[in-house]
UniProtKB/TrEMBL annotation:
Listed PROSITE patterns: AA_TRNA_LIGASE_II (PS50862)
Protein species of origin: Hermanssonia centrifuga
Residues binding ATP: 315-317, 331-334, 402-405
PANTHER family for the chain: SERYL-TRNA SYNTHETASE (PTHR11778)
Lineage: Eukaryota, Fungi, Dikarya, Basidiomycota, Agaricomycotina
Protein name (record): serine--tRNA ligase
Class of this enzyme: ligase
Record-listed E.C. numbers: 6.1.1.11
Gene Ontology annotations of biological process type: seryl-tRNA aminoacylation
Residue numbers marked as site, Important for serine binding: 452
Coiled-coil blocks: 105-132
Length: 501
């Protein structure tokens, strides 16, 4: 059998991102460099340093102080450069005025030569300073909400709890055992076809994925979220701009946790390196959803913009964490429904609470026992200003397991993706076009927020372990599923495993 086209070589590899000051001519749509706030960093060195330390950010020692010094050097170089650029224009005028005076013209040309060398030297120094400052500032994490707990995961604060009392932990409720007995999943076939932490959902397991997806989608759209399906393949540049710095979640040495796609056929005309942009598989729909608005300027009435995106999430880190990787809990690929919001600065904290409310409605409807955690500084990653996690009780695993996360990224992603909005301004009705342009409002960066509506395998784990039904001999014979899923269930099978409750 012949394939219809060239195959893409998908490989795991660590990559270091280098933003060039020049656009990538091979890209069909290249974004400008991120707009980082060097002034704010240089004016709040102590605060930024403490914040980076509290978040355990992978910054070189003294990076914040170095950025502040480089910013001052940049201003000094600019102050030296600008008058020389102005003088260059006056020398050009001298040369023209003395065209018939050889001595005066020669002197002006000599001055121009000296000035050109000085300008070239200053511009080169300025470029070097800006490049160094830029790459250091890229690694500076977002600020942190004042209510965020400081420290590792163990310092998370429980904000609220929902659902019935937790079912006693029992190995008989392990979702792998339940799923195999009821023929709902096949991990062995996944390992044969692809490798460890890949899986097949079968029978009611596959139907449960579809029902959960459509149920969560119905809740999101009811609350005004626009449905979107997202590309699973994205440019690595977009992922980095969203704050995915490929840091190992256990705090080990930095390593890429994305699947990188090597296009072995898209070579340049000289037979050299690939001419197309570096591509990766999306780790979450948040990334293509944020990228969808890159370089966009919103009108005030368009905000907040609320999106719910359906995509596949690809995570390379699965299979490296022992008991946490058993079964469906931590896998390489899964269906995920993501809530995404673009807002103004004034709207973002209220929008985070709205995301939390929508998620609470989804999981309460499923009858889960779950809790909401205010996550501490070391769990925020690079982009989050504040993060809530929701954890469901999983009696087969005998522990709580994360089923969703909600983050307010403030303007961290927007500065990197150039997403802004036009601030409204009130002008008299007789204002001329020229006056309107001179008084046009600034274009501040938006705030972006994201939250999981449904990470399907985690929800299946929680539902199987809490809903497993046993006979008098203690053998699993079926599952109890929440009746709220019944309208989204595709019937047509003779099996009677499911009991709607």
């Amino acid at each position: 059998m012949e394939f219809p086209g060239p195959l893409l070589d998908i490989s795991l590899r660590t990559s270091s991102r280098c933003y060039s000051s020049r656009p990538d001519s091979s890209a069909t749509a290249t974004l400008p460099r991120p707009r980082l706030n060097y002034r704010e960093i240089s004016e709040t060195v102590v605060f930024k340093s403490h914040n980076a330390f509290n978040r355990n950010a992978p910054l070189p020692a003294g990076a914040i102080q170095t950025i502040a010094k480089l910013y001052q050097t940049k201003k000094d170089l600019t102050d030296a450069l600008n008058p020389r650029i102005h003088t260059r224009s006056t020398i050009g005028e001298r040369i023209r005025q003395n065209a018939k005076d050889p001595d005066a013209k020669k002197a002006a040309l000599e001055d121009a030569k000296v000035l050109k060398a000085e300008i070239t030297e200053l511009e080169q120094k300025l470029l070097e300073v800006e490049d160094r400052m830029f790459h250091l500032a890229l690694a500076v994490p977002n600020d942190t909400h004042p209510d965020t707990p400081i420290g590792p995961e163990s310092t998370a604060v429980t904000l609220s709890e929902y659902g019935p009392p937790p079912i006693p932990a029992s190995p008989s409720r392990d979702h792998v055992s339940v799923g195999r007995t009821l023929k709902l999943l096949d991990l062995e076939a996944g390992a044969t076809v692809t490798g460890s932490s890949w899986y097949y959902l079968l029978n009611e397991g596959a139907l449960l994925e579809m029902a959960l997806t459509n149920y969560a989608l119905s809740i999101a759209t009811k609350h005004g979220f626009t449905p979107v399906t997202t590309p699973d393949v994205i440019r690595a540049d977009i992922a980095y701009r969203c704050g995915y710095q490929a840091r190992d979640p256990q705090g080990e040495t930095p390593a890429s946790q994305m699947y990188h796609i090597a296009n072995t056929t898209a070579r340049d005309t000289t037979g050299g390196s690939p001419s197309s942009p570096e591509l990766v598989l999306a780790g979450t729909a948040e990334i293509p959803l944020a990228g969808m608005f890159a370089n966009k300027i919103f009108l005030p009435q368009e905000l907040p913009a609320k999106i719910v995106g359906l995509g596949r999430a690809f995570r390379a880190e699965a299979g490296a964490r022992g008991t946490d990787t058993r079964g469906l809990y931590r896998v390489h690929q899964f269906t995920k429904l993501e809530l995404f919001v673009v807002s103004t600065q004034d709207q973002s904290e209220a929008m985070m609470e709205e995301l939390r409310s929508v998620q609470t409605e989804i999981y309460s409807g499923l009858g889960l026992t779950f809790r909401v955690l205010d996550m501490p500084t070391e769990e925020l990653g690079a982009s989050a200003y504040r993060k809530y996690d929701m954890e469901a009780w999983m009696p087969g695993r005998a522990r709580w397991g994360e089923i969703s996360s909600t983050s307010n990224c403030t303007d961290y992603q927007a500065r990197r993706l150039h997403i802004r909005y036009r601030r409204p301004v009130s002008l008299p009705s007789d204002t001329t076009v020229q006056e309107q342009q001179s008084k046009s409002p600034s274009l501040p960066f938006v705030h972006t927020l994201n939250g999981t509506a449904a990470a399907i395998p985690r929800l299946i784990v929680a539902l199987l372990e809490n809903g497993a039904r046993f006979d008098d001999a203690g053998e699993v014979v079926g599952i109890n599923l929440p009746k709220i899923l019944r309208p989204f269930w595709v019937d047509g099978r003779n099996r009677t495993l499911v009991n709607w409750v």
